[in-house]
Design goal:
about 250 residues, alpha/beta, four-stranded mixed β-sheet, 10 strands, about 50% helix, globular
Length: about 250
C-alpha cells in the first residue's frame, strides 16, 4: 500500500491542472488506495473555478492498469465521482493503459497517447468481463463490432490503431506526450468557461442516453464473473505459475 500523500502529485500551470499517478513500481495499478487519492484530487480541482481543464497522467511506463474488481461500495462511489467531473479532462497516456487503466482513459473527455502506449481490456483472459464502464463507453466510441472484438479477445492495440479507431485524439513522441496533452488542455482552458461547461454537458448527453441502465447491467454481470469458477481457476493457475508449480 502506498500512502495517500505519495499516491498522486498535482501541479498547476495557470488554468490547467495535472494530476499524475506516482506508483511506477506498481504499474499504477488502480488499487482502492490509489483510486481514492486520484478521485480526491480530481474532486478538489473540480470545485476550483480557476481550473479550466484537468490532465490525468501516469508515468512514461504506465498510465494505469487494473487494480482488482470494483465491487465494494467505496470503490464504485469513487469511480462514479471521477466520471461525474464537470471540468474537461484530458488523459495523457504513455506505456500501459490496461484493464481499469483503459477504463480511466475512457472516463476522460479527450486522450493524447505516446507512440509507445498499449491499450487493452485483458479481463476476459482471466475469466472476467470489464467492470468499470468499458462495455458501455467503448461501444459508444468505437461501435458495437469493434468494441466486441477488443472486449471478447482481450487484444492490446497500439496508439496508432487506437487513433484510427477513434479512441485516441492525438499521438505524440515518447518525449512529447505530456507536453501535447498540456497544449490541448491549454486550448480548452482559453475558451469561455460557461460555454465549455454547457458544451461538455451537451456532448455527454448524446453519449449517456440509457448509459445508466447499461452500466448497472455491466456491474451485475461483472459481479457474476468475479464469483464464477473460471475466474477462480484462472487466478489459481496464475498463482501457481508465479510460484513455479506445474499447471495441469
Amino acid at each position: 500500500m502506498i500512502a495517500l500523500s505519495s499516491a498522486v502529485s498535482v501541479q498547476r500551470d495557470g488554468a490547467v491542472a495535472v494530476v499524475r499517478l506516482e506508483d511506477a513500481a506498481g504499474g499504477n495499478a488502480l488499487t482502492p488506495e490509489l483510486l481514492e487519492a486520484l478521485a480526491s484530487e480530481v474532486a478538489a480541482l473540480d470545485t476550483d473555478e480557476e481550473v479550466r481543464c484537468i490532465v490525468i497522467a501516469g508515468t512514461s511506463g504506465a498510465f494505469a492498469t487494473g487494480g482488482g474488481a470494483l465491487n465494494d461500495e467505496l470503490s464504485l462511489r469513487l469511480w462514479d465521482g471521477l466520471a461525474a467531473c464537470r471540468t474537461p479532462t484530458v488523459a495523457a497516456v504513455s506505456g500501459y493503459a490496461l484493464d481499469r487503466g483503459l477504463e480511466l482513459a475512457l472516463l476522460c473527455d479527450m486522450v493524447v497517447a505516446s507512440e509507445t502506449a498499449e491499450l487493452g481490456l485483458p479481463e476476459i483472459t482471466v475469466g472476467l468481463s470489464p467492470g468499470g464502464g468499458a462495455t458501455q463507453r467503448l461501444a459508444r466510441v468505437l461501435g458495437r463490432h469493434r468494441a466486441m472484438e477488443l472486449v471478447l479477445t482481450g487484444r492490446r492495440i497500439d496508439s496508432l490503431e487506437a487513433t484510427r479507431l477513434g479512441l485516441v485524439n492525438q499521438v505524440a513522441g515518447t518525449r512529447d506526450w505530456l507536453k501535447r496533452a498540456l497544449e490541448l488542455a491549454e486550448v480548452v482552458a482559453r475558451r469561455p468557461p460557461g460555454a465549455v461547461a454547457l458544451a461538455k454537458r451537451a456532448v455527454l448527453a448524446a453519449e449517456q442516453t440509457h448509459l445508466h441502465e447499461g452500466l448497472a447491467e455491466e456491474q451485475r454481470l461483472h459481479r457474476r464473473a468475479v464469483e464464477g469458477e473460471e475466474h477462480t481457476a484462472a487466478m489459481r493457475a496464475l498463482a501457481e505459475r508465479r510460484a513455479g508449480k506445474p499447471v495441469e
